[in-house]
Amino acid sequence: MTDAQPRELRELIDRLESEAAADRDPETTPDVGVIMGSDSDLDAMAGAHEVLDDLGFSEDTGDGVRGFSYETYVVSAHRTPELMDAYARTAADRGLEVIVAGAGGKSADLPNMTASIAYPLPVIGVPVQEKSVDSVVGMPSGAPILAVDAGKSGNAALSAVQILAREHPGLRDRLDEWRTDLQREVADVSRRLHDEGVQEFRDSR
Ligand code: AIR
């Protein structure tokens, strides 16, 4: 810790550490942590938030919501390495079961470093751009990360819920319903495309 560390950063790290030390009711702690290197990644990470919302997760903004929930923070591996360390180090004790981590650019190190520090907690990496893929997935032997294709943050959220569903049959049912809805939508599009004809279908999109 340097003396130059700003109060705002220190307070955020203190918050994570005191939440980890507190004996909180697991019912009220977030299950999925969604972190990203910058708020400029929010659009790319929106798929994760949408899937979690669709599957009935609430957003925990610090009020200790009950039931399945997620939280979101900006954590930059390079601008705020101490915050990344604190987030990953305290994640399990704060009640998180799985982390979805997105980062962009060619040095997209938040997912891979979070995976190493939070191990054995599973971390699902989201390369925000195509050029971030190698940096997210390129881990050495013995240092695993789960990862999705560039921009596929919704898939990362689905994978996170799949992990949670191993212990929670209710979530398995929600995942089944989600897949049924998806198949219904694809079948509906397929039928309309055929029955309306290509031009009318395109015009109505
Ligand atoms: N980034 C932020 N800190 C470390 C990295 N690698 C990434 C963000 C974002 C990109 O850099 O994840 O995708 C550009 O960030 P910004 O804040 O300049 O828009």
Q: Say which molecules are bound, naming each kind only once.
A: 5-aminoimidazole ribonucleotide
Q: Structural class given helices, strands, pairing? A: alpha/beta
The CATH topology of the largest domain corresponds to Rossmann fold
**Percent helix range:** 40-55%
Radius of gyration: 19 Å
Total of DSSP H or I helical runs spanning 4+ residues: 8
Strand order of the largest sheet: 2-3-1-4-5-6
Percent strand equals 5-15%
Provide the low-confidence segments as ranges.
none
Q: Strand tally, please?
A: 6
Identify the CATH class of the largest domain. Answer: Alpha Beta
What does the secondary structure layout of this molecule look like, with pairings?
Blueprint: H1 7-21, E1 32-36, H2 42-54, E2 58-59, E3 69-74, H3 81-90, E4 98-103, H4 110-118, E5 123-127, H5 133-137, E6 146-147, H6 153-165, H7 169-196, H8 198-204
Parallel strand pairs: 1-3, 1-4, 2-3, 4-5, 5-6
Helix pairs in contact: 1-3, 2-6, 3-4, 6-7, 7-8
